[in-house]
Design a protein that fits this description.
Blueprint: H1 2-14, H2 17-34, H3 37-45, H4 47-60, H5 62-68, E1 73-74, H6 75-82, H7 86-99, E2 102-106, E3 109-112, H8 114-118, H9 122-148, H10 161-165, H11 172-177, H12 180-192, H13 206-209, E4 218-223, H14 229-237, E5 244-249, H15 251-256, E6 266-269, E7 283-287, H16 295-306, E8 314-322, H17 329-342, E9 347-348, H18 349-358, E10 361-370, E11 375-382
Parallel strand pairs: 4-5, 4-7, 5-6, 7-8, 8-9
Antiparallel strand pairs: 1-3, 2-3, 8-11, 10-11
Helix pairs in contact: 4-7, 4-9, 6-7, 9-12
The structure holds S-adenosylmethionine.
């Protein structure tokens, strides 16, 4: 058994993302194949408890302390350092060890493992917290909402699963950005979202297409660019491409972007449901924007861009392009997540073509850039 485990670990270490995912899927299927019915029930019904205990551990900084301690951490020392009731901490630690989040190395003694280290980065923690606090109420509401609305794919932006789950009538991004700490957490999480994946900037032919572009004209407008991680990556990849580089989003992320983007990036608070102020740019770049919107609202966003596009302008949709069959778990989670949060969806190439066509645009090319993630650039021009 030991040598089998070592062999599998070695294989995983040298595998590509796709190879590693295949391995993980194989283990998942193996696990399910040996579960008894009670195992399946226990696993399912405690998913939320596991999440709640890990969320609590993050609040307490418990995993950080265990990670940073040179030697295994003792229950009573941890209780004193973190000012937590030792009985409560004992119960939390024992459950975390039983889940494999930490290792129990002796009585009352705990050490970090790969899981503990996977939860080290602030942006990963931000994602976990954001999903627990803001997305889970929507997931909890999903079955009731779908039953009450007659099992149709939701389309309401103001009375969707998210609104009912979070007891709000605000649209999702107003709800998120209306609370500074939720907004900051979401913006940080966006850095981790797809953080390990290849970016499109090294693959899409930006330099070739924008040869001779005048320095005074807008080159790259990151529409709904959040706090600027992609704009910053674009500038890093192409420090010498001539032309203005502009980041647009709602006021809060644009303010946060001050610390992220270089000084020569123009930061403009702009609502993409209003007329686009930057005319005739080479690229209007929208990453993970339209997957947040229904077809109807996506067409409105695109039409505002179509109205200001010049002959050489291109809209770049940096999005998932779902394959026609055997879609992976991560992509389908994204699709149903978009349904729960925004009554929106991930789309196939056929669905993209129909959508952009309704806004007076056509697809020029699709450049897939991250194997295994279904990520591509859908480049659109005026019809
Ligand atoms: C899923 S995030 C993607 C952010 C960024 N493009 C990225 O890839 O990291 C969607 C972004 O759209 C922004 N947004 C939502 N509604 C908007 C609106 N009406 N006008 C401009 N930006 C908006 C949000 O603030 C958020 O930053």
């Amino acid at each position: 058994m030991e040598s089998l485990i070592t062999k599998i670990q070695q294989e995983a270490a040298s595998a590509t993302y796709v190879g590693r995912k295949k391995l993980l899927d194989t283990f998942r299927d193996l696990q399910y194949s040996i579960e008894a019915p009670e195992d399946t029930m226990q696993r399912l019904m405690h998913l939320n408890l596991q999440f709640a205990v890990i969320r609590t551990a993050l609040d307490l900084n418990l995993l950080s302390v265990i990670r940073e301690n040179k030697a295994p951490s003792n229950l009573h020392d941890l209780a004193a350092t973190l000012s937590v009731d030792p009985l409560l901490l004992d119960r939390l630690l024992r459950y975390l060890a039983a889940l494999g989040v930490i290792n129990e190395v002796g009585k009352d003694s705990y050490a970090p493992n790969a899981y503990t280290f996977n939860l080290a980065k602030p942006e990963i923690q931000a994602g976990v917290k954001f999903y627990f606090d803001t997305c889970n109420p929507a997931f909890q509401e999903m079955p009731r909402y779908l039953s009450q609305t007659g099992y149709k794919s939701p389309t309401s932006f103001t009375d969707g699963i998210f609104q009912r789950g979070n007891k709000t009538d605000l649209i999702t991004f107003d709800f998120i950005h209306g609370d500074p700490s939720r907004s900051a957490g979401f913006n940080l999480f966006m850095k981790a979202q797809r953080g390990s994946q290849t970016k499109c900037f090294g693959i899409y032919p930006f330099e070739e297409e924008s040869k001779g572009w005048p320095a005074e004209k807008p080159l790259f407008v990151d529409v709904g660019g959040g706090s600027g991680h992609q704009t910053a990556a674009f500038k890093e990849q192409f420090p010498n491409l001539p032309g203005r580089v502009i980041l647009q989003d709602l006021p809060e992320p644009v303010e946060d972007a001050k610390a992220v983007v270089p000084e020569d990036v123009e930061r403009i608070a702009h609502d993409f449901f209003k007329p686009q102020p930057i005319k005739g740019a080479k690229y209007y770049y929208l990453r993970m924007i339209l997957h947040d919107h229904t077809d109807e609202n996506s067409v409105k966003i695109l039409q505002h861009l179509a109205l200001v596009m010049g002959k050489e302008s291109v809209i770049l949709l940096d999005e998932m392009v779902l394959p026609p069959e055997h879609v992976d778990e991560v992509s389908m989670q994204a699709d149903l997540g978009m349904m729960a949060f925004h009554s929106a969806m991930e789309r196939s190439e056929e669905q993209w073509a129909k959508l952009v066509g309704a806004a007076g645009l056509k697809i020029n090319k699709v450049v897939m850039y991250a194997e295994g993630f279904n990520l591509g650039i859908v480049a659109c021009v005026l019809k």
